[in-house]
């Protein structure tokens, strides 16, 4: 009897996922992969398996990954000094060379993991096919070196890969009009790519549970926010630190046409599946003002 209850529970989970699979079948989703989920091997395997499952049930996933912790480790190994201005890494020529090397190494590692679970993947830099064109980004008016701000996204190569059944895995390196390499904040790159591709979903894997009405009250996690509600939260002064630019990125992406943006705790095993395929979800979804309330309409 106990085994039968377990089987029925599994069947209910699959049944609960059905309307979400139907709704987003054939739709592009962008996953910004970063935080602890990139460092812990078991979490990394879970994320890759989640993306593989999303692909195999008909979603069109794109992965955009960071690698800040690995870059810092290799910069230190090379005897270079690590400096940040307003949260952005100062990237001189030597640091840029290390960053590009490390990001490409991370990129190919993720591709290998995807291939191991039976999904075809191709790792690309934002320089390939001029996917990400940039201009120099300043931090509070200060020149911080080879740090780029995305000015244009060329989706042709990505669309070709996806149409031929590949999952693109993108590292956030772009080039300017003179074809110099620039490091790009992975959140910014993911937002730009999701916007250009008209993604139905953009998911940020982070090291926090989601967005709170009160950061000091862990029971105040918000499951869904409309853009006006998110903007009001930003103005309230209750949002700070790294969450501030992340929510602003989310709002900008929604205004530019992305249907839903999810902020998820990548430390939770299978957080992507829990957020995308269950009525409750595990993080915070930010939606356009005209969008249907996710959890009210998928009961």
UniProtKB/TrEMBL annotation:
<dbReference type="Pfam" id="PF00696">
    <property type="entry name" value="AA_kinase"/>
</dbReference>
<feature type="binding site">
    <location>
        <begin position="67"/>
        <end position="68"/>
    </location>
    <ligand>
        <name>substrate</name>
    </ligand>
</feature>
<dbReference type="InterPro" id="IPR004662">
    <property type="entry name" value="AcgluKinase_fam"/>
</dbReference>
<feature type="binding site">
    <location>
        <position position="89"/>
    </location>
    <ligand>
        <name>substrate</name>
    </ligand>
</feature>
<dbReference type="GO" id="GO:0005737">
    <property type="term" value="C:cytoplasm"/>
</dbReference>
<dbReference type="InterPro" id="IPR041727">
    <property type="entry name" value="NAGK-C"/>
</dbReference>
<feature type="domain" description="Aspartate/glutamate/uridylate kinase">
    <location>
        <begin position="27"/>
        <end position="265"/>
    </location>
</feature>
<keyword id="KW-0028">Amino-acid biosynthesis</keyword>
<protein>
    <recommendedName>
        <fullName>Acetylglutamate kinase</fullName>
        <ecNumber>2.7.2.8</ecNumber>
    </recommendedName>
</protein>
<keyword id="KW-0808">Transferase</keyword>
<keyword id="KW-0963">Cytoplasm</keyword>
<dbReference type="GO" id="GO:0042450">
    <property type="term" value="P:L-arginine biosynthetic process via ornithine"/>
</dbReference>
<keyword id="KW-0055">Arginine biosynthesis</keyword>
<dbReference type="InterPro" id="IPR037528">
    <property type="entry name" value="ArgB"/>
</dbReference>
<keyword id="KW-0067">ATP-binding</keyword>
<dbReference type="GO" id="GO:0003991">
    <property type="term" value="F:acetylglutamate kinase activity"/>
</dbReference>
<feature type="binding site">
    <location>
        <position position="183"/>
    </location>
    <ligand>
        <name>substrate</name>
    </ligand>
</feature>
<keyword id="KW-0547">Nucleotide-binding</keyword>
<feature type="site" description="Transition state stabilizer">
    <location>
        <position position="32"/>
    </location>
</feature>
<dbReference type="InterPro" id="IPR036393">
    <property type="entry name" value="AceGlu_kinase-like_sf"/>
</dbReference>
<dbReference type="InterPro" id="IPR001048">
    <property type="entry name" value="Asp/Glu/Uridylate_kinase"/>
</dbReference>
<comment type="pathway">
    <text>Amino-acid biosynthesis; L-arginine biosynthesis; N(2)-acetyl-L-ornithine from L-glutamate: step 2/4.</text>
</comment>
<feature type="site" description="Transition state stabilizer">
    <location>
        <position position="246"/>
    </location>
</feature>
<comment type="similarity">
    <text>Belongs to the acetylglutamate kinase family. ArgB subfamily.</text>
</comment>
<keyword id="KW-0418">Kinase</keyword>
<dbReference type="GO" id="GO:0005524">
    <property type="term" value="F:ATP binding"/>
</dbReference>
<comment type="function">
    <text>Catalyzes the ATP-dependent phosphorylation of N-acetyl-L-glutamate.</text>
</comment>
């Amino acid at each position: 009897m106990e085994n039968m209850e377990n089987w029925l529970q599994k069947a209910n989970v699959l049944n609960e996922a059905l309307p979400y699979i139907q709704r987003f079948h054939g739709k592009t989703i962008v996953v910004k992969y970063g935080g602890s989920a990139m460092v812990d091997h078991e979490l990394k395997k879970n994320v890759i398996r989640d993306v593989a499952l999303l692909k195999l049930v008909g979603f069109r996933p794109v992965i955009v990954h960071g690698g800040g912790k690995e870059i810092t480790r290799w910069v230190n190994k090379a005897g270079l000094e690590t400096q940040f201005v307003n949260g952005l890494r100062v990237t001189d020529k030597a640091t840029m060379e290390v960053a590009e090397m490390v990001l490409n190494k991370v990129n190919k590692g993720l591709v290998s993991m995807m291939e191991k679970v039976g999904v075809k993947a191709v790792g690309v830099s934002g320089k390939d096919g001029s996917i990400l064109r940039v201009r120099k980004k300043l931090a509070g008016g200060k020149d911080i070196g080879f740090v780029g701000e995305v000015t244009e996204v060329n989706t042709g190569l990505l669309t070709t890969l996806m149409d031929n059944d590949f999952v693109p895995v993108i590292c956030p390196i772009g080039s300017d009009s003179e074809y110099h390499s620039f490091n790009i904040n992975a959140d910014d790159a993911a937002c730009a790519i999701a916007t250009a591709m008209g993604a139905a979903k953009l998911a940020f894997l982070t090291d926090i549970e989601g967005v709170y009405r009160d950061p000091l009250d862990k029971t105040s996690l918000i499951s869904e926010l409309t853009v006006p509600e998110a903007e009001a939260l930003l103005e309230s002064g209750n949002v700070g630190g790294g969450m501030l630019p992340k929510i602003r990125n989310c709002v900008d992406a929604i205004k530019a046409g992305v249907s839903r943006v999810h902020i998820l705790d990548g430390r939770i095993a299978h957080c992507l599946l829990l957020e995308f395929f269950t009525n409750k979800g595990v993080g915070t979804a930010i939606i356009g003002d005209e969008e249907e309330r996710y959890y009210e309409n998928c009961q």
